[in-house]
Each structure stands twice: as structure tokens, then as C-alpha cells.
Write a structure and sequence with these properties.
Its cofactor is pyridoxal 5'-phosphate. By secondary structure, this protein is of the alpha/beta class. About 40% of the residues lie in helices and about 15% in strands. The protein has 16 helices and 12 strands. It has a 7-stranded mixed sheet, with helices on both faces. Strands 8-9-12-11-10 form a 5-stranded mixed sheet. It starts with a helix and ends with a helix.
Length: about 425
């Protein structure tokens, strides 16, 4: 099936007389007639469901759909995007290990890497992206486990240099982990550009309607853990799981199997079945929505580029944007999604006036759903960051983040144009 068809039909195939649409398995537990059958499930000898914290039919269908969209070997649905990121990192990192990460990542992820993980003994080394290969390689040591990227950085709107990072990671045998939330598999499939693990906040475009919190980890199955000294947990018998050696016994699915039977087993940050149902429903129109989001955002970006109240605009779909060549290289039809950042003349005061003057766009702590919205990150989502951290994350006082929805493009443009004029009074 092509991607558009996978959005609609992958993951769930009803049998004769079964529901045509994905059912909600709203049950914590599943019945078996013998202890031996359940024991085989615990030992991973058979596939099935026995407790929703580890697996559930509704979640399973969603996981299969997203894995199919990305071209992965498996996926795991989590309670939120932050839960997905945390579980993915802890799957390969222990105290004493470190990760490399772009500094322009989403504020919540930055805080996880900069504050919470160091408390657990896991260090994060941030890089800006303009370093030379030699400078990046100098940041790597024997305890580096992950290089972390965002396909489209939130809210810096920079595009990851996949080819360069993948080459460095391959040289050292390091896992490449990519947050693909703002691109989705409709626009970019990071596994085709050297990534090994893909993460989503499914709360955003995958759901698309701001109704279901969730996160998803996708395993590309393209990383060789077996024999790699950086990942001892995958190459030594796991005493908590009958001596299983994940790299040897689980093959290409080693990462996602361990994430489930160790990480999800112990931390329990599972997505709710109802949220899985709603997310699956949202994905059925993902291929349609992303085209509209991208077209509307491009029209708004052109408006902003030419408006006298705007100092600068960042949108990879603009042919004048520094990231445009990467959008052409990595993104389908150079679509760049619905996220835009721009700098308004007048700083925080003008940003406040701009937001108050909007009538269609809403001020919400959310992005990437069907409705257009706006946020001033320095005073909201990133307000916990220090001034130096804000600079490292690419966030200035005058940065305004727009999430352009699927309304009529002219209505969106009229609202923004009017608010820009009010901001300068």
C-alpha cells in the first residue's frame, strides 16, 4: 500500500463479521483458559494481550499503523510525547552515559535533557549545528549512546541535517533518534535518511484535533546492537526477563521489544485505549491535512516575509529560507508543515499586542491541530529557561510561533494582517 492508503487502512484488518472500524478494547485485562497460555505470553513465546500496561488490541493496531507509515519494524504507544522520549532514552542510557542533542529542540525535551536526566546521572551535550564534523566528533566518548534531533525544531523551525549526522553516528556506532512530530511521516520519513528511532508526540498532527494526549516510539530495525559495546543491556542476559539477550534473541526488533518489556513494564506510561482510538481516527486524514497545513502556512509565511511589522520569518517551505534546500532534499514535495516562527518589531510589548488583537487564531499551549493558534514561547512554554538557554534554543524576545490550521487561507491571513497592524500602534 502507498502511504495515503496506509493512513486509512494500515494496522487493522477486520475478519468476517468483525467491526469495520477499529474497536476500543476498554479493558485492563484479557482472559485465558490455561496458565500455560499466559505463561507463553510472559515469556514472549507467543503474541497476544494479557494486561493493557504492556499491550492492548486498540493500541496494537495504532502501533502497527504508525510503524507502517514510517517503515519501521515495530512501535510502542505511550501516554504522551514526553513519555515516549523518556522511555526511548532510558532504553539505552544508564547513569554515567551521555547523549548529544541539538540545542534547538522543544522546550520540554530540553528541560528533560538539561535538568531531569542529569539528576539520574545521564549527561546531555548540546550542539548548535554549525560545528565542524571534527568539533561534533570531539563531543563523543565511549559513553555516548544517542544523537538526538528534531526533523523540524520547535520553535526554531530549523531542519535537521540528516545525512551529516547519520554519517557521524555510523562512524562511531551510535543510535540516531529523531523527533518527527512536526513533519509526520507524510512529509518526512527519517528512517530513510539514516535515523534509527523515530519519536512522535501523537498529541499533535497525528491526532490532529487536540483531543488525545499520546506519544509513539518507532523502531527502524536498522541498527545493529549485537556486539556493539556501547549497548551492554542489549548484549548481556537480562536477569529480570529470564536471561533474555535482546540483541541476539529479538533481532531487528530488539529496541522496541526491550522498550516494552523493560521500560513500559517498569514505568507504565501507557497510552489509554480511548486515546489510541482517537489518534488512529485522526491519522486516517493525516495525508489530507498535512497538504492543507503546508499550503496555508506557505501563504502566511509569504505574507509575513513582506510585511513591514515583521523583522524576520522562519519557514522551511519559503524558497528564501536557509533551510529550504534541506526541505527540498528530505521533505515530500518540499512541504514544510504548518509551523512558522517570526520576529515582530517591538519585542515583547508588540508580541502581546499582536496576540490580543487576533480573533481567529487562539492563544493556546498547543500546536499542530486543525485550528490555527499562536504562542510567545519566551513568556510561556520556555519561560523556565535562562537567558542563555533561550539563546541556545534559538528563542528571542520577539519570536512568535504560529501553528497554521486547515481553515480558509484568506481568513487566516486577514486575521494575522490585522493583528500585525494593531501591534505597531
Amino acid at each position: 500500500m502507498k502511504l495515503d492508503t496506509k493512513c486509512v487502512q494500515a494496522g487493522y484488518r477486520p475478519k468476517n463479521g468483525e467491526p469495520r472500524t477499529l474497536p476500543i478494547a476498554q479493558s485492563t485485562t484479557f482472559l485465558y483458559e490455561t496458565a500455560e497460555e499466559m505463561g507463553d505470553l510472559f515469556d514472549l513465546k507467543k503474541e497476544g494481550f494479557f494486561y493493557t500496561r504492556l499491550a492492548n488490541p486498540t493500541l496494537d493496531a495504532l502501533e502497527k499503523k504508525v510503524a507502517a507509515l514510517d517503515g519501521g519494524v515495530g512501535a510502542m504507544a505511550c501516554a504522551s510525547g514526553m513519555a515516549a522520549t523518556t522511555l526511548a532514552v532510558l532504553n539505552v542510557c544508564n547513569a554515567g552515559d551521555n547523549i548529544l542533542s541539538m540545542s534547538t529542540i522543544y522546550g520540554g525535551t530540553y528541560n528533560l535533557f538539561n535538568v531531569t536526566l542529569p539528576r539520574l546521572g545521564i549527561d546531555c551535550r548540546f550542539f548548535h549545528g554549525d560545528e565542524t564534523d571534527a568539533e561534533l566528533e570531539a563531543m563523543i566518548d565511549d559513553h555516548t549512546r544517542i544523537i538526538f534531533l528534531e526533523t523540524v525544531a520547535n520553535p526554531a523551525i530549523t531542519v535537521a541535517d540528516f545525512d551529516r549526522i547519520a554519517a557521524i553516528a555510523a562512524k562511531f556506532g551510535i543510535l540516531v533518534m529523531v523527533d518527527n512530530t512536526l513533519a509526520t511521516p507524510v512529509i518526512c520519513r527519517p528512517l530513510e535518511h539514516g535515523a534509527n528511532i523515530v519519536i512522535y508526540s501523537s498529541t499533535k498532527y497525528l491526532d490532529g484535533h487536540a483531543v488525545a494526549l499520546g506519544g509513539i516510539i518507532v523502531d527502524g530495525g536498522n541498527f545493529r546492537f549485537e556486539g556493539n559495546p556501547r549497548y551492554p543491556a542489549f548484549n548481556t542476559p537480562d536477569a529480570s526477563y529470564h536471561g533474555l539477550v535482546f540483541a541476539k534473541d529479538c533481532g531487528k526488533s530488539a529496541f522496541i521489544v526491550r522498550a516494552r518489556v523493560v521500560g513500559m513494564r517498569d514505568i507504565g506510561a501507557q497510552m489509554a485505549p480511548m486515546n489510541a482510538f482517537l489518534t488512529n481516527l485522526g491519522i486516517e486524514t493525516l495525508h489530507l491535512r498535512m497538504v492543507r497545513h503546508s499550503a496555508n502556512a506557505l501563504a502566511v509565511a509569504k505574507l509575513l516575509r513582506d510585511h513591514p511589522a515583521v523583522e524576520w520569518v522562519k519557514y522551511a517551505g519559503l524558497d528564501t529560507d536557509p533551510n529550504y534546500p534541506r526541505a527540498v532534499r528530505y521533505f515530500k514535495d518540499a512541504m514544510a508543515g504548518g509551523m512558522i516562527s517570526f520576529g515582530i518589531k517591538g519585542g515583547r510589548a508588540a508580541a502581546s499586542k499582536f496576540q490580543k488583537a487576533l480573533r481567529l487564531l487562539a492563544i493556546v499551549t498547543h500546536v499542530a491541530d486543525s485550528r490555527s493558534c499562536v504562542l510567545h514561547p519566551a513568556s510561556t512554554t520556555h519561560r523556565q529557561l535562562s537567558d542563555s538557554d533561550l539563546i541556545a534554543a534559538g528563542i528571542s524576545d520577539n519570536l512568535i510561533r504560529l501553528s497554521i490550521g486547515i481553515e480558509d487561507a484568506e481568513d487566516i491571513a486577514d486575521d494575522i494582517r490585522n493583528a500585525l497592524e494593531e501591534s505597531q500602534k
